[in-house]
Amino acid sequence: MMFARSPRFVGLVGLVVLVLAAGRAEAQGPRRPRTPNDMLKSTEVAPDHKVTFRIYAPKAEAVSVGGDFGRGQMTKDDKGVWSLTVGPLEPDFYTYTFTVDGVRTIDPKNAMIKQGLGSLDSMFLVPGEAAEFEELKADVPHGEVRQAFYRSHTLDQTRSVHIYTPPGYEGGSERYPVFYLLHGAGDDDRGWTNVGRAGFILDNLIAAKKAVPMVVVMPNGSLPRPANMPRFTPGSPPSPELRAAMEAMQNRFTDELLREIIPFVEKHYRVHSDPEHRAIAGLSMGGGQTWRVVSSHPDQFAYVGLWSAAVFRRNAEDGEKPYEVFLKDADRINRSIRILSISVGDKDFLVEGSKHLAEMLEKHGIKHELHISGGGHTWINWRHYLKDLAPRLFR
Amino acid sequence: MMFARSPRFVGLVGLVVLVLAAGRAEAQGPRRPRTPNDMLKSTEVAPDHKVTFRIYAPKAEAVSVGGDFGRGQMTKDDKGVWSLTVGPLEPDFYTYTFTVDGVRTIDPKNAMIKQGLGSLDSMFLVPGEAAEFEELKADVPHGEVRQAFYRSHTLDQTRSVHIYTPPGYEGGSERYPVFYLLHGAGDDDRGWTNVGRAGFILDNLIAAKKAVPMVVVMPNGSLPRPANMPRFTPGSPPSPELRAAMEAMQNRFTDELLREIIPFVEKHYRVHSDPEHRAIAGLSMGGGQTWRVVSSHPDQFAYVGLWSAAVFRRNAEDGEKPYEVFLKDADRINRSIRILSISVGDKDFLVEGSKHLAEMLEKHGIKHELHISGGGHTWINWRHYLKDLAPRLFR
Prior knowledge:
Number of strands of chain A: 19
Number of helices of chain A: 9
Strand order of the largest sheet of chain A: 12-13-15-14-16-17-18-19
Mean pLDDT of chain A: 88
Order of helices and strands of chain A: EHEEEEEEEEEEEEEHHEHEHEHHEHEH
Oligomer: homodimer
Largest interface: A-B, 112 and 111 residues
CATH class of the largest domain in chain A: Alpha Beta
Low-confidence stretches of chain A: 1-11, 23-33
CATH superfamily of the largest domain in chain A: Alpha/Beta hydrolase fold, catalytic domain
Structural class of chain A: alpha/beta
């Protein structure tokens, strides 16, 4: 029979259970022959911060590894183990995947992963002082990250949201300011926790009294695709219809945030509900969403961060027209928005959009900051942008 | 240069960002040639509940798929796609992995996964009425699942715990009973949420008024391995030293729960703190831990569930000795424990342990229930055991 119903435990997990149960005198060893894979260390960080990747794929003809640190071809040894050493890398968390004979796959030996909407990446840490701001530290009080659900009438869906509450929230009675923190395309509301490490970054800043205690709301910014969404043809530029459909889809997030998420948060959590106690920031697609929300409702948030933002329609015929409500009244904007901070890496493929946005704001006399960091369109930068902006909020 | 620093976006995510930014006139299509992998549907559930698995591995020589439904060899078509159809399967969530030329790997096309301590499994749902008790339903109020951290002096570690709070907890003032729910070996405190679906099961039971609102505490039951742990030789029975070390390691969980976790929960959350409002259940290793806790501290929990439990040292020389405190005073036990429920599948490799435990309790006049279900040592059973026990708690 081809399909045998014989689920069974193998390896250490089975051993632990068998030893604990001890109802069977003999623990059975793994059945399959041992391979170089069994003891393989798939990521190894040397003291000099060079990182070696390894994967067992004896029959593959070409294997590469790539992530937010770059990409490179691996070489095979006589046991079928492919390896590549990169770096030294700055202490930080990195994501990576292998590509085995053209097929992208995560590291089968590493349970630390980033889950996207339709993608998976493996993760590793290069430890060191530069990464301490984002690590789980034993000697600081920890807040909580919770997953909550709300019913969105705007999207006609049950939606998930992740919420960080600072140490002392549970069991306390104080009200806190709220920071709305948006992820990028392909991610969902888990992103800022799983790979963005927002909770640990806030824990560490709050413990060091560098940031005031705040609630951080991380919504799901990925929107349902309309059924009639025009098709994308790979290799060709997106059609005007596709662009219009995507614009319309993105615009729905403004309603979702203002009509659903903020009222839900202010009803259920101990937060202040005035714009002076509200901040918003987002990365990439979430930066674009932040800009849409803020440019259409400039009096709702006192603090704004646009990170590697998908902003500024450089080639659009309508130029500044979508933002004219925002741009025409600099005095009002400059009173209501205390920080309008734009951050982007010099190697980010969206760097020009941020520069053009800053120029447009400059031209209209709207106070803002433009920070060009090193690096590209990566979580490495976004975690640092959070670390840099959070201390300046609600002061 | 072998290692090129050229991180770039490909595929739909990049497209979304590019279209939104529209700073570049042309969206770039994927660079690599399209393969049968691009459009592959890796799990497909037919209306008759048969499930087809597919993986693109044109160079592999043998591929199989296995999970908590069984295991089978796949066959390759002329495009390099391996497939196998199994079932029909009962509506439920299932875990699976592929084994490609001897190497275990998760499904590269499926972002729904179960993360263990050192393992990954892919997951899929066979939808249907029988699975409704564990699904996220739009028309019921939802509680929250949060991750909290506490400092354990017993283990000298910062430990993570997942906590379900029922609808109405946040913003309310009521106190709730607490259910301590333990996972198995190889898992951690995420397990009962990610694969166990405890929050959704409770949401649905509470909405239907089948269960009273309760807080569910899901600790991390995986304990630090002592540095001097004796080695395990695959293929040989575990040595007496290894067994003793594992026993000692497991016994630490009793202290961890009673001295650290319960005081942390009762200090920070709105819960009742008397044994009448405390339940405990665990699966496999966690069932063993539950039995250790309860047999040594029988007056601390009014409701007890032992599921596929790693219990009863059938061959141990000391027989009933470790439990003599528990066994000698049936009257007291029968007064303090209102439900002592043992559940195990008839194909579970630990079924004999549960039967022997029930016989021992019977012999000493201790009230208990033994439920032998179908199925094996799987989350499929454990989710059902939760659904069956939770309604009977705190009544």
